[in-house]
Amino acid sequence: MVLEEKVEKGQVSNRQAYLELSSITRHFVNAATGIKVQNYTLTDIQNADMPKLYELIAQCYVPEFSETSGGDISTSIKNARKVVEEWN
């Protein structure tokens, strides 16, 4: 995964990494389902009954929108990979 390499090399901020991870995952789900989740809020995703996607995007929300983003991007990338692998 290109994003993972950028994170490991310190080429992207934590916040930017979360923004990219969210975008990558949302575009995957859009391609897999035809649902434009890239335009959905977290509540919209929850209401669309996509629990795995909801959990992942919820992990991304605070680091994406916070001035001092925290979170563990490496764990979130692993979780995103699992969501994609298990998508049905």
- The helix-and-strand class reads mainly alpha
List low-pLDDT spans: none
What fraction strand? under 5%
Sheet having the most strands:
none
Topology overview:
Blueprint: H1 2-8, H2 14-33, H3 42-47, H4 51-65, H5 73-86
Helix pairs in contact: 2-4, 2-5, 4-5
In words, what does this structure look like?
- This protein has 88 residues and is an all-alpha fold.
- The chain contains five helices and no strands.
- It has helices at 2-8, 14-33, 42-47, 51-65, 73-86.
- α2 packs parallel to α5.
- The longest helix has 20 residues, at 14-33.
- The chain starts with a helix and ends with a helix.
Keywords for this structure?
88 residues, mainly alpha, 5 helices, 0% strand, globular
